[in-house]
Amino acid sequence: MDHAPTMSGPQPSPRSDAQAPAGSSVAANPGNTLPSDDDKLQVTSHNQYKTPRLVRDLLDPSPLKQFQRWLGDAMNPPREEVQDATGDRVRLEPVHEPEAMTLCTALPNGIPSARVVLLKQVDARGFVFYTNYHSRKSRELDANPYASMAFYWREQSRSVRVVGRAEKVSREESEAYFASRPRGSQIGAWASRQSEEVESEEQVARWVEEVEKQYEGHEVPCPPHWGGWRVVPFEVEFWSGQPSRLHDRFRYTRPEGAEDAEWKIKRLSP
Ligand SMILES: Cc1cc2nc3c(=O)[nH]c(=O)nc-3n(C[C@H](O)[C@H](O)[C@H](O)COP(=O)(O)O)c2cc1C
């Protein structure tokens, strides 16, 4: 695989305080410096993806089951080698933190915002993550319940997009999951006013101390402002990176709210 990025455009001017992250395209610059503000930094790596072809006949009729299969491959890859598009035998590598994904929400006026969260469950209904119900993402979902998720499993040249309608999971589900979290995270869920501006880190430390004192010797209950969201999909796309950017893409769709409807599956152009 060709991973080495190359620089083009004006040469960066040296800046002694700047540290280039190891392996970044900046490291290809002999001075190992970051460009000044008016310079261009272009990444022109020509990574060739190598992974088995995605074959229509082998897709599960349910994208949720297909996702579970791919997540299984990401967490625990099969031992056997498989053939890629060029005929080479390749073995799928394990993916680091495959449950991490980019979650996009939007205000009713269409302005989007994205952040990374962890998928905690995928079941017959949808994709569940946990968060603070007063956070920016939750406020956006309260006002506009549509969300999109993007998973990228670099080690396996695979990606999945989910589009759907978000709903809060039941209180029982949130409480059961909260009870399984480490105590530090439980305290943090009470202490954090997620996404609000805060004066200082000392302020956050004081909030943590207050919560620790309050629950000393007791179990920490699930805060009412904390819980899960389930994104119930009406579109799920599977992307498998292929040589020369001629990727395999299949999109599953069903009408919004028609959870018993059969999924339609269409191939998309790379
Ligand atoms: C790898 C990773 C995993 C994260 N997982 C979560 C998560 O599961 N839930 C969460 O609320 N924030 C998680 N965060 C923090 C979010 O990215 C974000 O900072 C936070 O939720 C506030 O987002 P908001 O202001 O858009 O609501 C994670 C961040 C990273 C980098």
From TrEMBL:
Domain Pyridoxamine 5'-phosphate oxidase N-terminal: 95-212
Region (Disordered): 1-49
EC number of this enzyme: 1.4.3.5
Transmembrane segments: none
GO molecular function: FMN binding; pyridoxamine phosphate oxidase activity
Cited Pfam families: PNP_phzG_C, PNPOx_N
GO terms under biological process: pyridoxine biosynthetic process
Class of the enzyme per the UniProt entry, highest EC level: oxidoreductase
InterPro entries hit by this protein: Pyridox_Oxase (IPR000659), Pyridox_Oxase_N (IPR011576), Pyridoxamine_oxidase_dimer_C (IPR019576), Split_barrel_FMN-bd (IPR012349)
Cofactor: FMN
Keywords: Flavoprotein, FMN, Oxidoreductase
Pathway listed: Cofactor metabolism; pyridoxal 5'-phosphate salvage; pyridoxal 5'-phosphate from pyridoxamine 5'-phosphate: step 1/1; Cofactor metabolism; pyridoxal 5'-phosphate salvage; pyridoxal 5'-phosphate from pyridoxine 5'-phosphate: step 1/1
Domain Pyridoxine 5'-phosphate oxidase dimerisation C-terminal: 226-270
Compositional bias per record (Polar residues), positions renumbered to this chain: 26-35
HAMAP family to which the protein is assigned, alphabetical: PdxH (MF_01629)
NCBIfam families, sorted: pdxH, PRK05679.1
PANTHER family assigned to the protein according to its UniProt record, in alphabetical order: PYRIDOXINE-5'-PHOSPHATE OXIDASE, PYRIDOXINE-5-PHOSPHATE OXIDASE
Protein name, per record: pyridoxal 5'-phosphate synthase
